Amino acid sequence: MHHSTAASHSTNQASSGVKPQRKHIPGPLWPTAARNTIRFAHQALSFVQELRERYGDLVTLPTMLGPWTLVFHPDGVRHVVQENHKNYRKGGISNHVLRLTLGNGLLTNNGDSWLQQRRLIQPIFHRKQIAAFGQLMTESTLAWIEEGNLDTSQPLDLFQQMSGLTLSIVCKALFGADMVGYKKRVFVASSMINYLEAQAFYVPGLLSLPTPQRHRLYKARNTLYTVVDELIAERRKSAAQSENDLLTMLLQARDEETGLGMSDQQVRDEVLTLMVAGHETTANALCWTLMLLAQHPDIEARLREEYISVLSGRAPQMEDLPQLKLTRIVLEESMRLYPPAWAFARQAIDEDEIGGYRIAKGAYILMFPVATHRHPDFWEQPDVFDPERFSPERAAGRHRFAYFPFGGGPRVCIGNQFALTEAQLVLATILSRYQLRLLPGANIVPEPLITLRPRGGLLMTVHPYKEL
């Protein structure tokens, strides 16, 4: 097929000692820049698929913001995020928008200061630490159900409900018992930020000009800053740093080489990053999974059998996860079809080469899990929901970067194990008790903002199972 020809072509030439003639990356002609920008803003998902089908695995897209290089092949993705990651820094529109609210946390930072932060924070997300949060995840979900959030009398906007649940889980993990008094302010501010970031993603200028949107974004951001700063100050003052929440761990983290910890501002930026980035992606993953299960009652019925045989009526615990095999692969397949982080952007620091093509210094590189996850060269029937493709037998030998919902390489999402654990425990807690159904005639459209979310929410009805 035409997809892999570029890579093999360059190796053949290189081995024969001839310096390869570096070709121009294929793509639409320059006069289409305005049209491309509008199409990307309004139909990103179908447009990106179309570009891959038409031009292959590496595409130059002229836009009003300059040329973009789109990388679809897993080899190209691996090159950018892993093999030559030092040449590619975080950049682009979404990074600009995120920096306005999250400051310089792990998600937005670059270079040596990023590396130092990563080294400090990495131990906090060790498997043992995450295991300690397992109980918190299940208990929070049970408490959330008991508060009546899964109202069975009327349709619910699941996206809103899941966002509330995942935000309360991440806040309890971050702040422990201190969270209670601040809950309302945090919820209001972070939903405001999500909404405004979503708008800004389409109109980047909104936040660089003194618009009402920017004023509202800063107001919401300042609310969060105030809450987090108060919590940091209290925690630094109190000797009670025996709390085993993430905030205490961040305050206690020390660089092995220098012995230095983080400044209050660094701690705050990391807290906000974990809070805002950490809850919305998981809420999206849960929404898409529940939607897919409602559309595939046969798989939902098999999940139900798994819960009856493994849990026999009790709430799921961390120790149950290895037995909840179907839950895990259902989630993985859901994140293949609807990856919450649907696109990743990088900027080339120096000139480079991908698959025999020249990448200019400063090139803006985009990678799309949402397209690579449905690449027909790597996935049979790519648009079909088939969790079994993640069974060990079928996953063996698959390209490591055909599936990268959490990115990859040194910058792979630091919270990936936390998010996967949380999503599995939340699903098992809810689905062992309730069945969720879509409204008849529901038309669900994925909306690619900073994360991939259901446009206008996701309305579903909730039906309790008869007692086990």
UniProtKB/TrEMBL annotation:
Q: Which GO terms describe its molecular function?
A: heme binding; iron ion binding; monooxygenase activity; oxidoreductase activity, acting on paired donors, with incorporation or reduction of molecular oxygen
Q: Which PROSITE patterns match?
A: CYTOCHROME_P450
Against InterPro entries, the record matches this protein to: Cyt_P450, Cyt_P450_CS, Cyt_P450_E_grp-IV, Cyt_P450_sf, Cytochrome_P450_Monoox
Keywords from the named record: Heme, Iron, Metal-binding, Monooxygenase, Oxidoreductase
Query: Polar residues composition bias: which ranges?
Result: 1-18
Q: Where is this region: Disordered?
A: 1-27
- The name this protein goes by in its record: Cytochrome P450
Q: Which organism is it from?
A: Reticulibacter mediterranei
